[in-house]
């Protein structure tokens, strides 16, 4: 399976990996097929994502797409962040091999879960 250079870079040097202890929202999504899990932590101010971190127990594609998601979401408003979809993440990584495309769903879904949780609390 051929991974793009950018994907390998995000896998080996994930951006924004870790936990936000005083997160305003936490989202989580698991992949039923493989059992991989992504958790996303958000710090939100004035409806804007000030900080975002992730923990992903998963394959190379899952980690790279999680990392790219955090890069794309940081600094965006919640409405803008909700528009980020798996294809945007895949495109930014220079593609993901077809059998691994489903891994990018985790990142998109975990972020949406976090935003929904945040809005539900309000
Ligand atoms: Fe599980 Fe990639 S194989 S997310």
Automatic annotation (TrEMBL):
Q: Which Gene3D superfamilies match?
A: 3.90.1010.10
Q: Which InterPro entries match?
A: NIF_FeS_clus_asmbl_NifU_N (IPR002871)
List the GO molecular function terms: iron ion binding; iron-sulfur cluster binding
Name the source's superkingdom.
Bacteria
| Ranges in coiled-coil conformation | none
Q: Which residues form the NIF system FeS cluster assembly NifU N-terminal domain?
A: 2-121
> Which Pfam families does the entry link to?
NifU_N
Q: Which GO terms describe its biological process?
A: iron-sulfur cluster assembly
Under what name is this protein listed?
Iron-sulfur cluster assembly scaffold protein
